[in-house]
Design a protein that fits this description.
The complex is a heterodimer of chains A (about 475) and B (about 1000).
Chain A: H1 10-17, E1 45-51, H2 77-80, E2 104-107, E3 112-115, H3 119-123, E4 128-135, H4 141-150, H5 160-168, E5 178-183, E6 212-213, H6 232-253, H7 256-279, H8 286-292, H9 302-314, E7 319-324, H10 333-357, E8 364-369, E9 373-378, E10 389-392, E11 396-401, E12 409-411, E13 413-414, E14 421-423, E15 426-427, H11 428-438, E16 448-450, E17 453-455
Parallel strand pairs in A: 1-7, 1-8, 4-12, 4-15, 5-6, 5-7
Antiparallel strand pairs in A: 2-3, 4-11, 8-11, 9-10, 13-14, 16-17
Helix pairs in contact in A: 6-7, 9-10
Chain B: H1 2-10, H2 22-34, H3 54-57, H4 76-81, H5 101-112, H6 140-151, H7 162-173, H8 180-188, H9 194-203, H10 206-219, H11 237-248, H12 253-262, H13 271-276, H14 293-313, H15 332-341, E1 360-363, H16 369-392, E2 411-417, E3 425-427, E4 439-447, E5 454-460, E6 472-478, E7 481-487, E8 493-497, E9 508-516, E10 526-530, E11 533-535, E12 558-560, E13 573-580, H17 586-599, H18 603-614, H19 616-638, E14 640-643, E15 654-658, E16 666-671, H20 689-696, H21 704-717, H22 738-750, H23 755-764, H24 776-781, H25 798-809, H26 829-833, H27 867-870, H28 890-898, H29 900-916, H30 921-932, H31 939-958, H32 960-967, H33 980-994, H34 997-1000
Antiparallel strand pairs in B: 1-14, 2-13, 3-12, 4-9, 4-13, 5-6, 5-12, 6-7, 7-8, 9-10, 10-11, 15-16
Helix pairs in contact in B: 2-5, 7-8, 7-9, 9-23, 10-11, 12-20, 14-15, 16-18, 16-19, 17-18, 18-19, 21-22, 21-23, 25-29, 28-29, 29-30, 29-33, 31-32, 31-33, 32-33
Classes of the chains: A alpha/beta (about 475), B alpha+beta (about 1000).
């Protein structure tokens, strides 16, 4: 037998390439010569709650009492300043201002003005950081959500969670690094916008960094359950035999990937145990449901998914993304918005307090917001009790908590029409740079070579970390 | 990751010992670390210095000479690289690029050795190099490879055994495992060309075309939905058929290219070539409310440039959308000149959420081809005869007319006028309009002043709060057009809307009629007649399935004049409202519409209506017209459309340069052209897509042939000779075997662009036929097998993994081509992302054949691709992909272990084993292994497998309910005669074997 047939064990190769097993990103393999994180992180985990459709800032977080005097008056050109409109309202002959019908009050030591629709969020005003001056260029949902999640309006780039998974890797051995949740909404008239698998895609990064959906119906993780009639013991027995057979292949062929495959099957088996453990809420005490609300018992509700998010980060999942639809209030706003808020308000409070009580909040960044703002003028018919709002990119509100942010802070100021930014703009790129910063990553140095370019989440335009909101 | 591997590759010995290769080792460093500021883009050029141009890199400047051949210490670039003052050190800190000591050493050594300089390799047209002498191998490929293998101090591996070869070649040529009998025949074949014969048989299989096509569909970004927002169904599968067919008939690659880029522009072009032009209709499109058309048009043009330049040129021209390319000599003007080719069709930016966004062509199924050619003529003729006959009998016609029985409606309202406030008349107990029954509604409508939207007739629970519970139907006037809407389960409607051909004006009477055939289809179950003529109604949204689901019934009465809630037909009037429980033909509706004027004695109408009632000959003609129309409709139903390119006649292809790529910042106008660094189109070439195709195929084009052969090489060996198969530019990788690449490229062109011939060359080479065994030495010197010092071995692509399970089990339905199918998929994959109105919101799995077709036919929804494909690295098809990655993840393991598709396949294969070899485990095991790994297991393996079988059996003997559950997985029926515990145990064994690393690799 000549030496060609003598295969080699994996050790040599591993030493050579330093590549570990499993779907983990090791910092030694990032494109930049630096190791990650670049500096001491504050956040180790994130829960990103994206409200699909774009909540209206002036009805929730950006109080504009002056607009009461402007009811049904046209938005002045001096304010609009040539902002391009979507074709849904660009054909309107009038742009009558629709002041919010909801009451605002100040809360906490920060004195933040928060609308009556979010009473529980208001209760924790001193725990959160409100940014009133987010802005973007996109005016429609598909490009805008893609923009804030992947850094570009056109599909194909990795999303934030994938970048984080790639850069920092996993914190646990049994669950995916990046998990995606979806929450239902209640109101039947809520306008539902499309989302897409691209929003949790790893783009040009390796597909192992894609978000894994944790589903509230059927298999919680796709294919995690053994088929009917195959108990765990039988699956284990099969894996034992499979491992032995693959070991023979490894010895015969000497292909490093075989060893990796053996490890992947073992991880799969571990996930088969860790996932049911994750989704089994039976051991959650009643106090949990007092905190999040009884809705948290119902699979698929926002409260239930928020609870799931806490359980995920508690088990060392690094990035959780949650999508909730129904916020696209082009019409029927006074009817639909309270319902949307009711779906989330208590659970938002519950989630942040829960993380706080468990000592996780300091290292867990929680983000709540949409993809752009909404217009102060009404879309469609305006009455004293009914109005709708079109998309508005120039300013919108978002709040975040934990993970190294300064709590009890309101950042930035918009004009009295909640139309333009007066002070401290935060482009979504800046927000992404700040998010990375909280994770101890310098967004300019965190790159991946693709198509000849050192690609960054924040893209090629300038982006700055928002120092004012850092603790 | 890539840079790491790149520097690893660079460390491989290439030239006579110690000689640095500028193109492979030096230029990439300069490109990556310097060109951004010292390269082709003048806008970011610093100090006016270019290091990508020889004269400048070697030219003396005030501060010194950047590169002084032979003297690294005198060379300004070295001085700056080693400078200790941060302000002068290169690259500067702000660039975030660092040169490693090894890279600096490479630069120094290169300069020391004389700093020889070559232009970027990919821009110099290839010529056929001399083939090295070699004692090893079967063809030129081997001789080139052998030269480098021996230079690395390695020897090729021995040839793999026939079983291994049989499996490998089958997977590479057809994407399917070999049939056991074909393997046996090959083993027994004593002819010297036995392997060639085996390969040729595979090449002649129709599955070859399928397999090659699957790779191409990634490049073409083929999918079955539009891709954005509502993401509705797009009827495009004829394009897929065209690609499969093209490979099977071995269409020359130049014609293949030309047909897809310009099939619509070829003089004397065939229908097939027109179908091929759909290549550039595959990009994602949108119809999202609020989009700005100009912006969208720019987006489409950009996709087409990106795709064309990636697939046919291997260049990242798209990087020049906002500025000149930083690394390659491609300007922003070049980008927009290319985009001009693709912005000149009759396609509108919004796709309308319909399945047949124009321009499209209709393709009948093959059985209808002949009839389709003649049917329109027949209809014209028949209608002509009808008219003539009416004229012939006109003298007999009298205005005392009475409609015969066939026109008796099941419900009738003579006339009604509504006040300005509007009121509603109710008729309870009405049940003539339902989802499963045909009906016709016709009436005369008076359109009142002032304009508004009204409901004329309805039966709907409009007061229902919960939008998803709305059921019923309405006939409205909206936007001056008549609309019939039927709302079923999930509040999903189908509708027929008038459109421009049915616009109404105030203070006029109109005749409108709707027919419904009871088949629930969105597109053609409803017809609309306006003043007696059928109009092409809007709301032509198609789905390949019936769209109206469930019942439309409710407890409401029939309402005339309103919807029972907020909508009233204020000031309007209705006359002669008729409801029928059948579909009236177009001729009958014309009669209804003409009837009033006929009774008034108007001659044309009178003759028509009289003959329709009294003249037997006329009635026969009317019946014939009706059946022919139905025949035509059924042909349309059986057939399908496909999207094509149609060039505008009224303008030349032009574009504007866009400042920073912004659609609303146009600058200079440019004509259609190709990058100047590649010579431009030249004056004798047409400035359209046909000219573009011609230019690509010229012998002087340095990229086209190389890029093509590189991709075919990549399909077989897993990695191209140029690893960055999508980037042959400065930032891509240099070829591992530049002479071999050039030889193959020229050879491909010189021999008729023959793809099968190229496949044959590769698969018959000794390199391909080596054992795929890694040794310690080869791990050190050829870790990624770029030298091909051993046979290829890597995990199969997603489609091949699933096809393998189906084929080996015997469940695969081998039909080639046709519309997409819907196999098993976990629930709610589509629903989670889809919008309410989307016709790809609810996934309804097929029964039967559709579950077992090759994976390339799986319905592809871009915003929620099939997870079984996605998990194994299939791209989303949102953009062009020419290179897939191969990951190794636990989610993949879960899929192949637990997905019903795989479990059912395991069960079915186990069943066949048990049916063929009753009560003999060893023989059953051989049956399994011959289909799964094309060999018999060795004693050690048999021992492991048998032990697991015994443990499975013990369990299933004690728990027969588990056995029954396991063998019931999947839609196909398990053989009830087999002993259930044994069956289940063998299913587990098969499941175990189907997950072997050996099975998942090729």
């Amino acid at each position: 037998m000549n030496h060609e047939n003598k295969a080699v064990l994996l050790e040599t190769r591993r030493q050579l390439l330093g590549r570990g097993i499993g779907a983990l990103a090791l910092s030694s393999l990032t494109a930049s010569a630096d190791t990650l994180p670049h500096f001491a992180p504050k956040a180790k985990r994130a829960i990103y709650l994206h409200m699909v459709g774009a909540p209206p800032q002036m009805d929730l977080l950006d109080y504009k009492p002056g607009m009461k005097d402007w009811f049904d008056k046209d938005l002045p050109d001096s304010i609009r300043q040539g902002q391009r409109l979507t074709t849904m309202t660009s054909g309107q002959t009038r742009f009558p201002i629709a002041p919010s019908v909801f009451k605002f009050a100040q809360h906490g030591k920060s004195g933040a003005w928060i609308s009556e629709l979010l009473p529980n969020v208001a209760k924790m005003a001193d725990d959160i950081t409100i940014i009133r001056t987010m802005h973007t260029e996109a005016i429609n949902h598909e490009p805008a959500i893609t923009f804030i999640q992947t850094g570009n309006q056109i599909a194909g780039r990795p999303c934030i969670g994938s970048w984080i998974a790639y850069g920092l890797g996993s914190m646990n051995q049994d669950l995916p690094t990046f998990v995606v949740l979806n929450a239902n909404h209640t109101h039947p008239k809520a306008n539902v916008q499309a989302i897409s698998a691209r929003l949790w895609s790893a783009g040009f990064l390796s597909a192992q960094y894609s978000g894994v959906s944790l589903r509230s119906a059927g298999d919680p993780v796709l294919y995690v359950k053994n088929p009917d009639g195959v108990p765990t013991a039988m699956r284990r027995r099969m894996l034992d035999a499979l491992g032995e057979l693959n070991q023979l292949t490894l010895e015969k062929q000497g292909d490093a990937e075989t060893r990796s495959r053996i490890a992947q099957y073992e991880m799969a088996f571990r996930m088969q145990a860790s996932v049911p453990d994750l989704t089994d809420l039976s051991k959650e005490p009643d106090s949990t449901y007092q905190l999040y609300g009884e809705d948290a018992r119902k699979p698929g509700t926002f409260a239930n998914q928020a609870l799931m998010a806490r359980r995920l980060v508690e088990r060392g999942v690094r990035f959780v993304q949650l999508y909730m639809r129904g916020w696209d209030v082009h019409g029927n706003l006074p009817e639909v918005l309270p319902s949307q808020c009711k779906d989330v308000d208590q659970a938002l409070y519950g989630l942040v307090q829960d993380l706080k009580q468990r000592g996780l909040l300091d290292e867990t960044l929680v983000v709540w917001g949409g993809e752009f703002g909404r217009t102060i003028y009404s879309q469609g018919k305006l009455t004293p009790t009914d109005y709708g709002r079109d998309h508005h990119p120039r300013c919108y509100s978002l709040w975040a908590a934990g993970g190294g942010l300064k709590p009890g802070v309101v950042h930035g100021e918009t004009d009295e029409f909640s139309y333009n930014i007066v002070r401290d703009p935060v482009h979504i790129r800046d927000f992404q740079a700040t998010l990375l910063h909280l994770f101890g990553i310098d967004h300019e140095r965190f790159t991946y070579k693709y198509q000849g370019l050192d690609q960054k989440l924040t893209g090629v335009e300038k982006a700055r970390v928002v120092k004012g909101i850092l603790a | 990751m890539m840079r790491f591997l790149m520097s690893f590759l660079l460390a491989l010995p290439l030239l006579p010992a110690g000689r640095v290769d500028f193109r492979r080792e030096v230029r990439p460093i300069l490109s990556d670390a310097c060109f951004h500021c010292h390269g082709p883009d003048k806008k970011t050029r610093m100090a006016g210095l270019r290091l990508d141009v020889k004269t400048e890199a070697f030219g003396a400047r005030k501060s010194g000479t950047p590169i002084v051949p032979g003297s690294p210490d005198q060379s300004l670039i070295i001085k700056r690289i080693l400078h200790d003052k941060p302000a002068l050190k290169m690259p500067p800190a702000s660039a975030h690029k660092t040169l490693t000591p090894a890279q600096i050493n490479t630069l120094r050594t290169w300069i020391e050795q004389g700093a020889d300089w070559q232009e970027h390799w990919a821009f110099i047209a290839p010529s056929k190099p001399a083939v090295p002498n070699s004692s090893w191998g079967n063809n030129e490929i081997d001789r080139f490879l052998h030269a480098r293998i021996t230079a690395a101090g390695l020897t090729p591996a021995a040839e793999a055994d026939r079983r291994t070869l049989a499996r490998r070649a089958s997977l590479d040529i057809t994407g399917l495992p070999p049939e056991p009998q074909d393997v046996e025949a090959f083993l027994k074949d004593t002819r010297p060309n036995a392997y060639e014969a085996y390969v040729d048989k595979l090449l002649s299989s129709p599955h070859y075309g399928e397999h090659r096509a699957r790779y191409w569909l990634d490049a073409a970004r083929y999918a079955d939905t539009h891709g954005l927002h509502i993401d509705n169904y797009r009827e495009m599968w004829h394009f897929r058929d065209w690609v499969i067919n093209a490979f099977n008939r071995n269409l020359r690659f130049d014609a293949f290219t030309r047909d897809q880029l310009a099939g619509d522009l070829l003089p004397g072009g065939t229908r097939d070539q027109l179908i091929a032009s759909g290549f550039h209709r595959n990009n994602v499109t949108t119809n999202e409310g609020g989009v700005i058309e100009d912006e969208v048009a720019v987006m489409y043009a950009k996709d087409r440039v990106d795709t064309t330049s990636t697939v046919f040129l291997g260049l990242t021209v798209g990087c020049a959308t906002c500025h000149d390319h930083k690394f390659d000599p491609i300007t922003q003007k070049d980008f927009y000149s290319m985009s001009a080719f693709f912005r000149n069709t009759t396609q509108k930016p919004l796709d309308g959420n319909i399945s047949d966004t124009p321009p499209v062509i209709f393709l009948p199924v093959s059985g209808d081809e002949q009839r389709w050619k003649t049917i329109d003529q027949d209809l014209i003729q028949l209608r002509g005869l009808r008219g003539q006959r009416a004229d012939q009998v006109a003298a007999k016609a009298k205005p005392e007319l009475k409609l015969p029985k066939q026109y008796d409606p099941v419900w009738h309202l003579d006339k009604i006028a509504f006040s300005k406030e509007g009121e509603v008349k109710e008729a309870p107990g009405f049940n003539k309009i339902q989802a499963d029954q045909p009906f016709t509604v016709s009436m005369w409508v008076y359109y009142p002043k002032p304009d508004d939207n009204w409901t004329l007739l309805s039966q709907i629970n409009s007061k229902e709060e919960d939008g998803t519970k709305i059921r019923g139907w309405t006939i409205d006037i909206q936007g001056r057009q008549p609309v019939l809407k039927m709302v079923g389960e999930f509040a999903q409607p189908i509708a027929a809307r008038g459109g421009n051909a049915a616009k109404m004006m105030p203070d006029n009477w109109y005749h409108i009629a709707f027919t419904y055939d009871g088949q629930r289809r969105k597109k053609d179950s409803l017809e609309l007649y306006f003043n007696g003529t059928r109009v092409n109604h809007e709301g032509k949204q198609e789905s390949s399935r019936p769209a109206l689901q469930g019942s439309i019934l409710n407890n409401e009465p029939l309402r005339i004049g309103g919807d029972g809630n907020k909508r009233f037909f204020k000031g309007g009037s209705l006359k002669d409202v008729r409801i029928y429980s059948r579909v009236l033909s177009s001729e009958e509706i014309a009669v209804l519409e003409m009837f009033p004027r006929a009774t008034e004695g108007k001659p044309v109408e009178l003759s028509r209506v009289w003959s329709a009632i009294k003249d037997g000959e006329s009635r026969k003609l009317m019946a014939k017209i009706a059946t022919t129309e139905l025949e035509r409709k059924n042909i349309l139903r059986r057939g399908a459309v496909t999207h094509v390119m149609v060039e505008r006649e009224d303008q030349k292809p032009m574009a504007n340069i866009l400042y920073r790529g912004m659609y609303d910042q146009p600058r200079d106008k440019v004509e259609a052209d190709v990058p100047q660094v590649l010579g431009g189109l030249g004056s004798s070439t047409q400035k359209n897509r046909l000219g573009l195709a011609d230019w690509l195929l010229k012998a002087e084009n340095p990229l086209f042939a190389r890029v093509a052969v590189n991709r075919f090489w990549q399909e077989i060996f897993g990695t191209g000779l140029v690893r960055s198969s999508d980037d042959f530019g400065s930032q891509g990788e240099a070829p591992s075997h530049p002479e071999l690449l050039d030889w193959l490229a020229v050879d491909f062109r010189e021999n008729g662009w023959d793809v099968k011939r190229l496949m044959r060359q590769i698969v018959l080479s000794a390199a391909y036929r080596q054992q795929a065994v890694t040794t310690e030495e080869k791990l050190k010197k050829d870790s990624d097998n770029r030298l091909l010092s051993r046979g290829p071995r890597f995990r199969m692509d997603a489609e091949a993994v699933r096809d393998y399970a189906l084929a080996s089990s015997g469940l695969l339905v081998r039909k080639v081509g046709g519309p997409s199918v819907r196999p098993y998929q976990p629930e709610r994959i589509w629903e989670t992302v889809a919008m309410d109105g989307s016709d790809t919101r609810f996934y309804k799995q097929d029964r039967g054949e559709g579950l077992y077709r090759r994976s390339m036919y799986t319905f592809w929804k871009r915003s929620a691709p099939p997870p079984s494909m996605d998990l194994f690295n299939a791209p989303t098809r949102e953009n062009c992909t020419v290179r897939r990655e191969r990951t190794n993840t636990p989610l993949q393991a879960l899929l192949t272990m637990n997905d019903v598709q795989f479990v059912e396949a395991a069960r079915h294969l186990a069943q066949r084993a048990m049916e063929t070899h009753k009560n003999n485990f060893d023989e059953q095991l051989d049956f399994l292994s011959e289909r799964l790994v094309s060999r018999r297991f060795e004693p050690k393996e048999r021992d492991i497998i048998q032990k697991s079988y015994r443990d499975f059996l013990r369990h299933y003997d004690s728990k027969p309910e588990d056995a029954r559950k396991l063998i019931a997985v999947g839609e196909s029926k398990a053989n009830p005669k087999l002993n259930a515990p044994e069956f289940a145990a063998l299913t587990m064994v098969t499941n175990e074997l189907m997950n072997l690393d050996e099975v998942l690799n090729k």
